[in-house]
Amino acid sequence: QVQLVESGGGLVQPGGSLRLSCAVSGLDVHNYAISWFRQAPGKEREGLSCISSIGGSRYYVRSEKGRFTISRDNAEATVYFQMNSLKPEDTAIYFCAGREYRCSDSQSSYNYWGQGTQVTVSS
């Protein structure tokens, strides 16, 4: 069984921070790029960030201006997504997804998806 399991979501006040985790099992995490996506109510799913299979390449959506940081610990088979200075518009379900080796902006190219973790930013 291949599983990607997100955790770390919750309720946070504007300006706060969260670190999401994506735990990977059932495949060799060393061979898979992992991306983070989010989907807000009534909106399309959007890509936020990606890290290549051993972490040598990292990508971020340009509009976020340094608020987000992606990292991975392959020994722990976990990818992390640090989010700082959170805003109400960050409220969404956050997903991690995997594909072999390299990052891609094509959502359909990701073979494995987690079930998502809810992030709510509200005062």
Describe the 3D structure.
- About 0% of the residues lie in helices and about 50% in strands.
- The protein is mainly β and about 120 residues long.
- The radius of gyration is 13 Å and the shape is globular.
Strand content: over 45%
Distance between the termini: 39 Å
Written as H for each helix and E for each strand, in order along the chain, the element string is EEEEEEEEEEE
Structural class estimated from helices and strands: mainly beta
Rounded to the nearest angstrom, the radius of gyration is 13 Å
- Determine the number of helices (DSSP H or I, runs of at least 4 residues): 0
Q: How many beta strands in the DSSP annotation?
A: 11
Shape descriptor: globular
Major pleated sheet: 7 strands, mixed
Percent range of helical residues = under 10%
Low-confidence stretches: none
Mean model confidence by pLDDT: 96
Can you give keywords for this protein?
123 residues; mainly beta; 7-stranded mixed beta sheet; 4-stranded antiparallel beta sheet
How would you concisely characterize the structure shown here?
With 123 residues, the chain is mainly beta.
Present the secondary structure layout.
Elements: E1 3-7, E2 10-12, E3 18-25, E4 32-39, E5 46-51, E6 58-60, E7 68-73, E8 78-83, E9 92-100, E10 112-113, E11 117-121
Parallel strand pairs: 2-11
Antiparallel strand pairs: 1-3, 3-8, 4-5, 4-9, 5-6, 7-8, 9-10, 9-11
